[in-house]
Amino acid sequence: MRESALVAGAVDDRLWLRVADTIDKPILFRWQVDAYHAHIEALWGWDARWQERDFNKLFAALPPRVIMQRGAGAVGYIQTQRRAQSLHLANIVLRAEMRGQGIGTRMLEHLQSRASAEGVAVTLKVFRSNKRALAFYRALDFEETGRSNTHFELRWSPESLAKRL
Questions:
Q1: Fewer CB within 10 A of the terminal residue: the chain, N end or C end?
Q2: Euclidean distance between CA atoms 65 and 131, whole angstroms
Q3: Average pLDDT over the chain, rounded to whole?
Q4: How many angstroms separate the CA atoms of 28 and 35, rounded?
Q5: CB 39 within 8 Å of CB 99
Q6: Strands of the sheet with 151-156, listed across from one edge
Q7: Cα separation of 161 and 108, whole Å?
Q8: Under 8 Å CB-to-CB from 123, ≥6 apart: which residues?
Q9: Could you read off the pLDDT of 124-160 as tens digits, one per residue?
Q10: Long-range contacts of range 132-138, CB-CB < 8 Å, 24 or more positions apart?
């Protein structure tokens, strides 16, 4: 099992994280399908069985943290990984009706704060077809460091925060 960059506990006064359990798997997978299906279908085609196997493999290797919000319950999940020089965001998925309410921003700022305290970067990949997510990450000072046929690779460093202040 790889080490998560985020631990269970408070994010802020309204959000907290808990470790996902196997009972959470069906709903988390449903949220992932909702979030990623259109992008994957457009980029290389959707194979439901492969997607479920891949989800289960990553769930076991990098247990998700369920994002809990006071008054709303489970609103999404996040998977992060501690790497040598970065905290890597593997996935952040929010329930469709919870998107656009600042939850993603608060979660990314929490991850950036952890990275800044450790003096490391935050890295991630985003589907090239996901223009909304790309704009979201760029607004949080992520910069493109690479690209493939399917993804943009992005990086944020503590120096990015200093530039903004």
A1: C
A2: 25
A3: 94
A4: 11
A5: no
A6: 9-10, 15-19, 65-69, 73-82, 86-94, 121-127, 151-156, 143-147
A7: 13
A8: 83, 86, 87, 88, 89, 145, 153, 154, 155, 156
A9: 999 999 999 999 999 999 999 999 999 999 999 998 7
A10: 136/104, 136/105, 137/108
The mean per-residue pLDDT over the stretch 91-109 comes to 97
Q: Helices 131-139 and 103-118 sit at what angle, rounded to 10 degrees?
A: 50
Nearest CA-CA partner of 8 in 66, 62, 59: 66
In the prediction, which pLDDT does 25 show? Answer: 97
Please tell me the predicted confidence (pLDDT) of residue 27.
97
Rounded to 5 degrees, what angle do the CA atoms 104, 119, 136 make? 25
Q: How confident is the model at residue 2 (pLDDT cuts 50, 70, 90)?
A: confident
Percent of the chain having pLDDT more than 90? 90
CA-closest candidate to residue 80, choices 93, 92, 72: 92
Q: Is 64 helix (H, G, I), strand (E, B) or coil?
A: coil
- State how beta strands 151-156 and 143-147 pair: antiparallel
Token pair 């009972």 is at which residue? 23
**Residue 1 has what pLDDT?**
57
Residue 75 CA to its chain's centroid (Å):
13
CB–CB of 59/82 below 8 Å? no
